[in-house]
Amino acid sequence: MSVYVPSYALAYGFANFLFLCNLAVILAAVGIWTCSRLLLSSQAVGILLVGVVWTADVVSRLLTGSHAIGGTEYMWDPQWPPFTRLLSLYHVILPVLLVIVLRRIGYDRRGYLLQSAVAILGVVVGRFFGPVANINDAFVDPILKKTWGGPVTHVAVVAGALVLVAYPLTHWLLLRVCPSPPQALTARRSSPKRSRTTTAGDTAP
């Protein structure tokens, strides 16, 4: 975080942290620091599909020279510092890290509800920063590149796509690949532990 935050702030400005994917880095760091299963679960719900789409678009650009989906054009824009652009590889690393953590501590199904609230608020706030910034696709959707009616309709469409389509998919996936908290706790308690008994010629750990 000591590298990510100042690098992004200097290159893109502080408003850039309002993007849900960038906000996920901060909230996930807080979740790891505080051991918050709920916070980590919510950010896993939010970043998994985004990470897959982002990675697919970058790979498409590398292999074919064109963007299959769009949204990662900035990775090839020389106006931004190369190091700062490389930091965006968190889109690849963070989803994997969160799944590993949640497989250890368990997935909190309330994460879906928390992330849904964060996403709705994020899209609404994005309307205050204008169409040029298009924070959280609050003016133009990321897939069809169009505006859906007026402000209320567009926010409802974009937020609804996240809350009713994207997030249920990742929520379903996390429920299946990660244990629930009680199961995770039981698994950890039943895992074999190294004996601390010492014998002649051995040294205690």
Structure report:
The chain is mainly alpha-helical and 205 residues long. It has one domain. Helices cover 64% and strands 0% of the residues. The protein has nine helices and no strands. α2 (20-34) packs across α3 (37-64). The longest helix is centred in the N-terminal third of the chain and has 28 residues, at 37-64.
Largest sheet: none
- Strand-and-helix sequence, N→C? HHHHHHHHH
Number of domain modules: 1
Question: Which class best fits the helix and strand makeup?
Answer: mainly alpha
Poorly predicted regions are 194-205
Strand count: 0
| General form | globular
Outline the fold blueprint.
Elements (H helix, E strand, L loop, with lengths): L3 H9 L7 H15 L2 H28 L17 H6 L2 H16 L5 H16 L3 H4 L17 H27 L3 H10 L15
Helix pairs in contact: 2-3, 3-5, 3-6, 3-8, 6-8
